[in-house]
User: Which sequence fits this backbone?
């Protein structure tokens, strides 16, 4: 773990040298949801490939860079894309960006994703505030030796997503005339789209949506003592619910169509997060 911590510090130091003022808020932008970056001013962008030890995303729809800028009265770090467990990274590598942000000085994580809907009241384009998660992956970022400099051995997960931030986000949505859903997100390892039998099983567990990200970042953020808020863009209905076959291209198209509402909502929300 000492090597991991050293790598995190090296990455954090490199980023701090490049960005100037330290951001207190970081946002992870999922597939096709990078439009929020356009809301910021005075931006500085760093390709992931230039950050020491940083895992580079190989998925289309991800810009693959860290952009830091000003949104309202906040300095915000936008992660345009993320690494995934299914790309062959370890869970600790997947969590690397989250822990790096904590070492930089970030204390609030806003996480977005594009995912499949299980709740039959949803439709493509629905925005869902995540209230809780189910980890369906065979691992998580906390497996192995624990480094107390990052967080406790047994972190609490009774409130993985801040109830205070959820209430603030709901108020912001209402003021904009938006009506996001709320639900439970299941993190599936991927990279294949789930089978109909798997979806029936996941639905029986109580999940409203299923995707291939978000859970590792949520676990790491809570472990590191950060408050967390997450929202899903339902880009398709899950296998056995929708009639047509899945494609990543359709996922990106739906995410981009919904990104205007998501962008103005998150822009208003982030501006109102207490300093």
Assistant:
């Amino acid at each position: 773990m000492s090597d991991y911590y050293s790598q995190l510090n090296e990455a954090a130091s490199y980023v701090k040298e490049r960005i100037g003022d330290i951001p207190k808020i970081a946002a992870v932008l999922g597939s096709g949801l990078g439009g929020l970056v356009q809301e910021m001013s005075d931006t500085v962008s760093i390709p992931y490939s230039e950050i020491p030890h940083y895992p580079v995303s190989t998925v289309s729809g991800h810009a693959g860079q860290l952009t830091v800028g000003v949104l309202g009265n906040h300095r915000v770090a936008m992660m345009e894309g993320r690494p995934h467990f299914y790309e062959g990274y370890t869970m600790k590598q997947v969590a690397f960006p989250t822990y790096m942000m904590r070492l930089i000085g970030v204390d609030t994580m806003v996480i977005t994703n594009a995912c499949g809907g299980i709740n039959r009241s949803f439709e493509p384009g629905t925005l869902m505030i995540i209230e809780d998660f189910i980890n369906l992956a065979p691992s998580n970022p906390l497996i192995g030796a624990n480094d107390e400099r990052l967080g406790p051995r047994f972190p609490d997960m009774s409130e993985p997503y801040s109830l205070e931030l959820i209430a603030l986000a709901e108020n912001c949505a209402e003021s904009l005339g938006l009506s996001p859903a709320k639900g439970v997100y299941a993190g599936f390892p991927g990279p294949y789209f789930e089978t109909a039998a798997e979806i029936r099983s996941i639905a029986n567990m109580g999940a409203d949506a299923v995707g291939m990200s978000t859970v590792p970042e949520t676990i790491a953020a809570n472990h590191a003592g950060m408050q967390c808020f997450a929202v899903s863009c339902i880009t398709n209905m899950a296998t056995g619910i929708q009639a047509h076959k899945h494609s990543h291209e359709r996922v990106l198209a739906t995410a981009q169509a919904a990104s205007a509402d998501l962008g103005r909502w998150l822009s208003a929300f982030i501006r109102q997060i207490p300093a």
Remarks:
- The first strand starts at residue 25 and ends at 29.
- The mean pLDDT is 92.
